[in-house]
Design a protein that fits this description.
The chain is an alpha/beta fold and about 300 residues long. The protein has two domains: about 190 residues, FAD/NAD(P)-binding domain (3-Layer(bba) Sandwich), CATH 3.50.50.60; about 110 residues, 3-Layer(bba) Sandwich (FAD/NAD(P)-binding domain). The chain is built from eight helices and 19 strands. Strands 1, 2, 3, 4, 5, 6 and 19 form a seven-stranded mixed beta sheet that branches. Strands 8-15-9-10-11 form a five-stranded parallel beta sheet. A three-stranded antiparallel beta sheet has the order 12-13-14, with no helix packed on it. The longest helix has 28 residues. It is elongated. Keywords: Flavoprotein, Membrane, Oxidoreductase, Transmembrane, Transmembrane helix.
């Protein structure tokens, strides 16, 4: 017989584990199915999470798994490959396990597609970074580079100038004519040097970034490079369920209410599954919010059913 749960949580990152913790403490039979691909896996530490500042992401997840286990929440390492909505949700994992759930939390996050420049992928999360709020303090006052991926990268170049006054903005495949007069004025005011020309590779010596090399042969000494990966939301399961998505400059994300409820009755989403800018602290908060809404939803549903008997 197919196992039945009150809630299945798809994704075991900060959002999924936070939801599972609240659900377990509310005495709801909960299963977490985690593919084991957290977005922040390349990073050695996470910042800006009060009381957890500087903690390695892997340690954070280990503690979360221990905490949910105290309340009887089950966690399996697997990938959900199919989900269907009937009276309940039917969830199918790659390993062959099929379960049913009255409610569903999708916390599948997103993937970062990095610029195709030699060395960027290998150094990502070390001295190739994307978020100054996550890593700016640790690399403060070092020589920064910013690798443009579009004219919108001007914003990143301006933001990182809060952490270093030695910033060079490498236009890469962006033409200088694509920058507005306001962009150029702000870059000049921030002391950011604009460097035209395509970047071909990163120079690495003794396992650390030392320079940015251009196609015309010059090398600019830099010890940190910021870039903006292209976010790819992992919304496949929600799309199969028919959830409404809305387009943003950073991809298509599900339409949700303030608790994370999607347009599919009984299906919530949290964390980077609902937006590009969700940091770990936001994701944990979103999972908590979704779970508390689910507890109330199930309770009222059951009370209404009992009252009609």
């Amino acid at each position: 017989m197919t196992e039945k749960y009150a809630v299945v949580v798809v994704g075991g990152g900060a959002a999924g584990l936070s939801a599972a913790l609240v659900l377990g403490r509310a005495r709801l039979r909960t299963l977490v199915i985690d593919a084991g691909e957290p977005r922040n896996a390349p990073a050695a530490h996470m910042q800006g999470y009060l009381s957890r500042d500087g903690m390695p992401p892997a340690e954070f997840l280990d503690i979360g798994r221990e905490e949910i286990a105290r309340y009887g929440v089950e966690l399996v390492q697997d990938r959900v490959v199919e989900v269907e909505k009937g009276e309940d949700f039917t969830v199918v994992a790659a390993g062959g396990r099929t379960v049913q759930a009255r409610r569903l939390v999708v916390a599948t996050g997103l993937k970062d597609e990095l610029p195709a420049v030699a060395g960027v992928a290998e150094r990502f999360g070390r001295d190739v970074l994307h978020c100054p709020f996550c890593h700016g303090w640790e690399v403060r006052d070092q020589p920064f580079g910013v690798l443009a991926s579009s004219p919108a990268s001007v914003h990143q170049a301006l933001m990182v100038s809060q952490w270093s006054k030695d910033v060079r903005f490498f236009l890469h495949t962006v033409a200088e004519e694509e920058l507005s007069d306001e962009d150029l004025r702000r870059l000049a005011a921030a002391g950011v040097e604009v460097v035209p020309g395509e970047v071909t590779e990163l120079v690495v010596e003794d396992d650390r970034l030392t320079g940015i090399r251009l196609a015309e042969g010059t090398t600019h000494p830099r010890s940190v490079l910021f870039t903006a990966p292209r976010p790819v939301p992992q919304t496949g399961l929600l799309e199969r369920l028919g959830a409404e998505l809305h387009e943003t400059p950073f991809g298509a994300y599900p339409v949700v209410d303030p608790t994370g409820l999607t347009t599919v009755p009984g299906a919530w989403a949290a964390g980077n599954a609902i937006g590009f800018a969700e940091q770990v602290v936001h994701a944990a908060s979103g999972g908590y919010r979704a779970a508390s809404a689910i507890v109330g939803d199930l309770l009222m549903t059951d009370l209404d059913a009992a009252a009609q008997v």
